[in-house]
């Protein structure tokens, strides 16, 4: 079996994960699964101060894209891989990985995936979702405070000190590698079109 790999990208809080999960739910676990870029963060547990700190998690260097590329190639070839499990509360990579077996469709979700040439070349299709910065910040604030134990002050400092600049430098420009770019106003229509194509 040779898997079709679809990249879904966009800024943090753009709605890319919502889009990827809806596709996954609609297609079903036998046909589709999601591979998250965020599983491939390097272990920063010895440097993280639990409220952002100096580590720039929105820079490509914070991720093990080499391993991600290897895993995509293996899955496309029909070989199972072991996906790292990342703990966002402590920013550590857990010892136990998760077994991942190939499915006909693999969705790769991540803000920086289209900024990496060796990842782009593994994709059969690439989607980029645009979203205003103010909306993305509010969504990130809500998520990081409720799910990752962050303070509003720390989230704001990290967003405007690191997230927004890295979006301008890496994430936004990477949309040139997408074959479909759309915003919230056409989210539903594009979702239905992509779903119809995949089905």
Explain what you see.
The chain is α/β, with parallel strands linked by helices. The protein has 6 helices and 9 strands. Strands 2-7-1-8-9 form a 5-stranded parallel beta sheet, with helices on one face. The chain has a two-stranded antiparallel sheet with strand order 3-6. A hairpin with a 4-residue loop joins strand 4 and strand 5 (92-93). Helix 1 (16-27) runs parallel beside helix 6 and helix 4 (133-147) crosses helix 5. The longest helix has 20 residues, at 152-171. It is globular. The mean pLDDT is 92.
Short structural description:
Helices cover 38% and strands 18% of the residues.
User: What is the succession of H and E elements?
Assistant: EHEHEEEEEHEHHEH
> Based on helices, strands and strand pairing, what is the structural class?
alpha/beta
Spans of 5+ residues with little confidence (pLDDT < 50)? none
Helical fraction:
25-40%
Query: What global shape is seen?
Result: globular
What's the story with the biggest beta sheet?
5 strands, parallel
Number of strands: 9
Number of helices: 6
Mean pLDDT: 92
Which strand order do you get reading across the main beta sheet? Answer: 2-7-1-8-9
